[in-house]
Structure formats: C-alpha cells, structure tokens
Amino acid sequence: MSLDPVLSRIDADLEAAMDRLKELLRIPSISTDPAYKDACETAADWLVADLASIGVEASKRATPGHPMVIGHVDGTGPHLLFYGHYDVQPVDPLELWDRDPFDPEVQETPKGKVIRARGASDDKGQLMTFVEACRAWKAEHGTLPCKITFFFEGEEESGSPSLVPFMRENADELRSDLALICDTGLFDSRVPAITTMLRGLLGEEITITGPSKDLHSGMYGGAAMNPIRVLSRIIAQLHDEQGRITVPGFYDGVPELSSDLRAQWDGLNFDHSAFLGDVGLSDPAGEAGRTALEMLWSRPTCEVNGINGGYTGDGFKTVLPSKASAKISFRLVGQQDPHAIRDSFRKMVTDMLPPDCEVSFTGQGASRAGAFDTSGPAFEAARKALSDEWPDPAAYIGCGGSIPIAGHFQELLGTTPLLIGFGKDDDQIHSPNEKYDVESFHKGIRSWARVLDALS
Amino acid sequence: MSLDPVLSRIDADLEAAMDRLKELLRIPSISTDPAYKDACETAADWLVADLASIGVEASKRATPGHPMVIGHVDGTGPHLLFYGHYDVQPVDPLELWDRDPFDPEVQETPKGKVIRARGASDDKGQLMTFVEACRAWKAEHGTLPCKITFFFEGEEESGSPSLVPFMRENADELRSDLALICDTGLFDSRVPAITTMLRGLLGEEITITGPSKDLHSGMYGGAAMNPIRVLSRIIAQLHDEQGRITVPGFYDGVPELSSDLRAQWDGLNFDHSAFLGDVGLSDPAGEAGRTALEMLWSRPTCEVNGINGGYTGDGFKTVLPSKASAKISFRLVGQQDPHAIRDSFRKMVTDMLPPDCEVSFTGQGASRAGAFDTSGPAFEAARKALSDEWPDPAAYIGCGGSIPIAGHFQELLGTTPLLIGFGKDDDQIHSPNEKYDVESFHKGIRSWARVLDALS
Fold first, then answer.
1. Can you tell me the mean pLDDT for B306-318?
2. Which stretches does DSSP call E strand in B322-451?
3. Among the CATH numbers 3.40.50.1100, 3.30.70.360, 3.40.50.20, 2.160.10.10, which is that of B202-264+290-367?
4. Distance CA B307, CA B316 (A)
C-alpha cells in the first residue's frame, strides 16, 4: 500500500478534520469536576461514533469513574495500541480566557494558524491526529497497514483512578506489540521528538486545622494559632536556600545525568532565555547549578499548585480562619519511590506542626518516573518517519511532565510505549487560552500516516 | 421622669422588639461585596423608617459608598450621639452555616435563648438595643431624657472609606456632649464593661506575580518561580521564633502595661483556658511571655486573614500559577503609627522578593489605637447604671478589636466616646452561625434605658 496518496488525502481533508476536532472540543469534558460528569460521557460517546465511522468496532466501557473507549480494527501488519485521553483540565480562572474555552475557533496569529480551545492540545487535538491518519489510510486503501487497538481514557487529568484496575482486568484485550502514546510535544517547531524519559508524579493535598471554627482576628488574633501562618511556614521550609527539596530521603534514587545524554542534550542548543522569556521570566528559579533543561527533564521538583484559606473574596474580612489547605505535587525521576516520599513528606509535615494544630492529607496519585529502551527497531523506524515529515531530524528527549500510562504499559502489559506528540511549549495547556497549532495538527496527522507505514 | 415604668415597658415589649430586629436581620447588607449594594440601601431605609416611627427626624444621607443614616430628636438633658453600623460581614464559607444567615431565628441553646443570623451581634442587635431603649422612654414619657443624635454607618465592615469625609463635612451637626458607641462586648455574662482601650487596624492585601501566565508545573516546575512559594516564604518570616513581628520599627510606640492596669486586669481572673478551649485550642500562640489578655488588649498583632493562589477547586490541577495573594492585617496599640508601619511592611516585602517576581499592594484602612480618659463624670455614672442592671459591677476593659470611629469622635469632633456593648466572646461574629443572646438584647435595652436616665 502506497503512502503518498494517503498524505495527499490528508492534505485535501484538513478542513473537514478540523471541523471534527472542533465538535469534540465543544464537549466540556473536565474530569476532575463532578459537575461535568455527563460531558465526559458525551465525549466518550462521540469518540465511539467517530471510530465506528471509519470501520472500527468501538465501545464505551464503564468504570467507577469516567468511561474508557476501546476500539479494535484489523490490519495487515503488527498489532499497535494507540492511547490518548478525551478529558481536559478545568478552565479557571475563566476571566483570563479571551473567549469561551469550549467554543473552539481557528485564529490567525503572528506564529501561524491555531485552534483555540480547552483541550485543543491536551489531548483532544493530539488524539485526533492519530484517528485522522487512520481515517485517511482507510479511505484510500480500504484497510489499515497495522492491526490497531484504540484506548481512550477520560480521567488522565484527574489522577486516572480507574486506569490500573481497568488495564489489569482487560490485559489480554489491550496487550499489543507496541503502545503509541500521543500526549507529548515537539522539541521545537522544526524538530519532532520521541520522548524516552518521563518524570513521575506524586500529589498531596494538605489541610491544616487550628481553631475549631473561624474566629474574629480582633478578638483572637495573636493568642490563637492561625493555620495560614502554619501552612506558609511548612511550604517555606520545603526547599532550602539552594532550591533543594528538604523532605528526608527525597533524593534517594535520583541519578546524575550520563555523560552521553548530557552531550546529546547540550547538542540541542536549548534556548533557556527564550523558554523563560516566553512566560515573562529571566532567571531559572530551581536548584542552584543545574541548567533549565536538566531541571525540566531529569531533576525532581516540588511545587505548590494551589493554596487557600480564610477570606479570599473582594474587600477585607478580619477573620482568623479555622483551616488552610494547599495542593502540593512532586515530579519524580530515576528510581525515586513515590510511596516512600509520601510517607516521609507526611511525617515531616506532622513533625513541623505547632501545638493545637492538626493536619490531614489526601493523596492524589503516585507514579514512578519512566525511561524507555530505544534499542528496538520500532524506535529507529519511527524516528526516521518523523524526520521525513519535519524540517530537521527527530530527537530522543526527556519530558518534565508525567504520563503514568507509559509506565503502566510496560509493567502491566509488557508492551513498550512509544511517545510521539506534536504539542508546543507555548500551547498553554492547563492555562487560559490553550491552543494547538494547525501545523501541529496537520503535520501530526501526516506524521502518524508515515509512522504506520514505517511500522507496517 | 421615672425609670421603672420604662424598664417594665421594655420587658413587656421584648417579643415585638425581637420581631423588629429580625426584620433588619433579613436584609443582607454585606458592605464589602458590591453585589449587596442595594441591600445596604434597603437597610438604611429600614432604619430611617424605624427612627421616624418613634418621632426621630431621620434621613438617609448619600456618600460615595453606602449611605449614612442620621436622626435627631430633642430631649430634656445633655446632647448624646449614638453610633452603630447596619452593615455586616460576608457569610462565606456558607456551607458551615446551619441555616440561611439572613433568615433569623430565635433558638434554644444549653446556654439560653439566642437570635441566630449574620449581624445579630455585629452590629444590628447591638444597634437596636439603643433604639429600643429610646422607643420605651418615648412611649412611656412622650419624650426622651436627653437630646439625641443617631448616627448609623453602612461601611464599618469594609474599612469605612466615607466616614472621615462625612464627619468632616457634617461636624457641626454631629458634635455633641458624649458619643455612645455600641459595638463592643461584656467582660463575661455577669460583668458588663466599658471599653477604654481599643487596638488600631492596618490592612494590606499583597499580590505576588511570577510568570506572566499560569503554567503547567510539569513543563515549567522547578525552573520557573512559583509565587505561592514566594508568598509563603514572606508570610513565614513576618514573625520570629518568639512570636514577635519582624517588620522593622513595628514596636515603636508600643507601651508596656502600667502596673495599675496590670493589677486591675489580673483582678478580673480571666479564664485563659476557657477562652481558648471554647474554640478548640489550649496553648496561647502569640508572643512568648505574654498572657492571653495582654495579647488581646494591649499587644499588637499581625495575622493573615486570607490566602489564595493557583487551583483551589476539587481534585488536582498541576498548575504553576502566575499569581498568589494574601490579606494581612495588623492590630495596633499605643502610639504605633499605621502609615509608618505600612511603609516599613511594604519595603520589607519588596526587599524579600526573589528575581522575576513583582508585588502589588492594596491598602485597606489604617487606624491608630485609642485609649479614653475615664475621669469625666459620665464614665462613673454609666458604670453605676450598668452595675445596677447586671449581677456584678461593671469593669473598664481593653478590646482586641478595632473601632476606628471612637478615635474619630475624639479627633474630628472633640467628643469623648463611651463604648458600651453586650456581645459575648462566643457570638461568632465574622464567622458562620453568628448569634446574639436574647439576654444580651433584653438586658442591653434595659442597660441603655438606665444609662440615659443616669446621664440626664
């Protein structure tokens, strides 16, 4: 089966493909917020119907949370599994969006055309690059060059509570020769990438309770313990003056970069100033003596993702609150053990409590870092296919984010994951005004068409 | 004119007085939230009508913010001004209320009957004690024993921005022999009190900005400055290990307690354990080596009243936020200068900023502490009148809260303020489930009837 007519058909069909993506983007499938439960069901139904339209035997599969979408279609070559997620991040602060996050629009920008909407890049746009590549193969040749299992999740942005049980229960159905995951980015707009190192993620929500109820700070201020002050003191002590994380044992299992990988990364000529300058910053803020690329790809971190306590509305209220809470996440690398770090963190925080304070913890997912063996033939075949599509050759890179599914494919199914994606650093995923470049979408579809051809 | 029939009439009219108070409590006059602007107007209209019903020439007077209510009524004795405020605190967190905060209800509790609603104690219930005392005098004798000016404010809970300009413009109309203020508490349920020391208040809202937009913590975490961490570090450093406030020059003008006053306060046998135990605490948390009563009445404080940044909804969002903010208030004593402290605080915070961070400040009121000369005859007359009504003799006490109006009467009008109130420590003002004891209301009305008699 010839690749060229498939690529031509993709070019001709681009407008229709964008219309399909916009349909999916209109569904507000925010998985972390129970108010959007029905929208998650609707997004799953939409995917089932769209897969069916290209001849895939697809179904929605219930879980205790949001449903999975599974699809199977025969083909002539090896058996590939394709993973993406149809759920999206919350949209607040809504007032910082220039338009309704769920009313997608193609916009002209100085850097080219973009599709603007929540989920455009993370992960609906990426997910659809693969579906559209299959659609073009099928339309052109009546069949696909590989046997494919589609596996779409609806809880990726909320800790994937149903994922592991589902994979365990359906391991035979999901096992395949190679797992393709489309939830990562380009190295830059000329250099496509296969991500071979991923950080793990540990989330902890902590709530400090002082007085048994909110008090008037005039009446009790000074004499009563203020949980915001306690929480601030704990957060302030999570890093030392060198930017290192103070949780005991935190750096156990953190490897130094090999000289090979360091040389390869140095060769990428990563523009640290532009990376930070794009978001209004100039100085890397993390560990002293590390480059930004190291911090992002190979060093562990601890960040506070949210903090809340007392009166936060307009104006002033002289309350001394009963509670204050923070959402804290750790990015993990190498052999760091998320469960050991959770225990150590909880003990450290508990030990820091002054009299009359209590703390409660809510764990929010715990995944190890991943590193993938690139020696199999599929990696080099895929790298060549990507290099054929983009201006510069594809690179093997690390990724600051966490994609727990990659580890699960390895551990639960024995299937090697291959992470290819077309997002850009300025896509504003998890932020207001998220977008996906039309070029990412278009060349992404073409890239998958080439990868399918290369792996067949 | 005889006092006894006035007291009898107050007893007989109690149910009707409570119905009137409940009408006022149903108006959600939250002054700090622009959404309740109309409700503030409605509360002012209600007061004008109620004053008119007892023969007071009353009117609503516009300001750039919420209106003032002014009323005049002639009488035979000295000219008294009575001050109260009709605005109330916000009600959040609403989910911690056992019922609608603006649907007042009289409830039986183990400690006696209470009126439950936002503003029941602070300050609508207190304000109405005086109005009801006047109503009873007028009903019984057809006139009042003193000439009275009523002065009700609608911005006390939001920094009183219009108060000083209004007092300056209307000084001749407001000047009187003595200013009665009903916004303070009993010493305990047997001991009424005249408050002669008040702390000042300085409010500052600070907002730290790091990246120019919200970022994905997986992509930027570690390398980009997190404003929640910066803010936490600032808050953690506002107090030293001894609980002293670290703002340079903060303790300038803070006096040590005189031995006289210390002896008088020791004589009150304040129950520190019960005071803290009522709110689930056991250890005084403030400055080392100070009693709780000192901390509350005569020592300055710094408290964080609210903190907010990043994602604070349900679930988790791995955002690295652009901004984080906190509302911080200082209680001031003695000769502390709020403007000098504001400048010093802002310089200290600015000096603590790491690279790539900015801070903005919003000032929220700045009032000095007050201490009132009790040597005039009105103080002893009022003290005797209160002692006649309550089981134990009245005390001169300090107050942890701030009532800027008291200082304004002295400075702008040359009128001595006399602070009498009937609130209790467990009234939960500024908190969910605010209440006012029916006993406070009933004996409060009777107390004012006696004070009017004593001052006439």
1. 89
2. 323-332, 358-367, 370-371, 395-399, 417-420, 435-437
3. 3.30.70.360
4. 18
- B77 in reach of chain A (CB within 8 A): no
Using CB atoms, which residue from B223, B285, B311 is nearest to A276?
B223
pLDDT tens-place string over residues B174-204? 999 999 999 999 988 899 999 988 888 899 9
Query: Between chains, do A327 and B307 touch, taking CB under 8 Å as contact?
Result: no
- The rounded percent of chain A whose pLDDT value lies above 90 is 73
DSSP B19-79: HHHHHHHTS--BTTSGGGHHHHHHHHHHHHHHHHHTT-EEEEE--SSSPEEEEEE-BSS-E
> What is the assigned CATH class of domain B4-198+369-455?
alpha beta
Where along chain B do its domains lie? 4-198+369-455, 202-264+290-367
Residue of B nearest to A289 (CA): B223
Chain A hits for B296, Cβ within 8 Å: 219-220, 222-223
Q: Do domains A4-198+371-455 and A200-254+300-367 have the same CATH topology?
A: no
Number of cross-chain residue pairs from A and B with Cβ atoms under 8 Å apart: 352
CATH number for the domain formed by residue range(s) A200-254+300-367: 3.30.70.360
Q: Mutate which of A94, A206, A207, A232 to disrupt the B interface (most B C-beta within 10 Å)?
A: A232
Residues of A in contact with B319 (CB under 8 A): 305-306, 430-431
SS3 A251: coil
Mean pLDDT of all residues in chain B? 93
- In the predicted model, is pLDDT for residue B296 greater than 90? no
Q: Is the Cβ–Cβ distance between A241 and A287 less than 8 Å?
A: no
The CATH architecture that domain A4-198+371-455 belongs to is: 3-Layer(aba) Sandwich (3.40)
Query: Which pLDDT band holds residue B162 (cuts at 50, 70, 90)?
Result: very high
Please tell me which residue of chain B has the smallest CA distance to A331: B218
**CA A11 – CA B34 distance, rounded (Å):** 54
- Cα angle at B310 between B306 and B311, to 5 degrees? 105
User: What confidence score (pLDDT) does residue B295 get?
Assistant: 84
Cβ–Cβ under 8 Å, residues A320 and A190: no
Closest CB to B305 among A285, A311, A429? A311
CA-nearest of A377, A408, A402 to A81 is A408
CB-CB under 8 Å, A320 with B303: yes
H or E stretch covering A105: strand A105-109
Instruction: Return the residue of A nearest to B326 by Cα.
Output: A312
For residue B123, cis peptide bond before it (omega within 30 degrees of 0): yes
Whether residues A305 and B311 touch (CB distance < 8 A) is answered with: yes
pLDDT tens column, A65-112? 999 999 999 988 899 999 999 999 999 889 999 999 999 999 999 999
Position B55 pLDDT exceeds 90: yes
Q: What is the tens place of the pLDDT at every residue in A199-233?
A: 889 999 999 999 998 888 877 877 888 999 999 99
Q: Tell me: the pLDDT tens digits for A127-137?
A: 999 999 999 99
| Longest Cα separation, chain A | 80
Q: Is A270 in CB contact (< 8 Å) with chain B? A: no
Beta bridge partners of B335: none
Q: What is the pLDDT of residue B375?
A: 80
CB distance B398 to B196 below 8 Å: yes
Short-list B68, B41, B58, B37, CA closest to B160? B68
Min Cα–Cα distance to chain B from A305, Å: 5
Contact B49/A at CB under 8 A: no
**How buried is residue B78: exposed, middle or buried, by Cβ count under 10 Å (0-12/13-18/19+)?**
middle
Residue B48: band (very low, low, confident or very high) from pLDDT cuts 50, 70, 90: very high
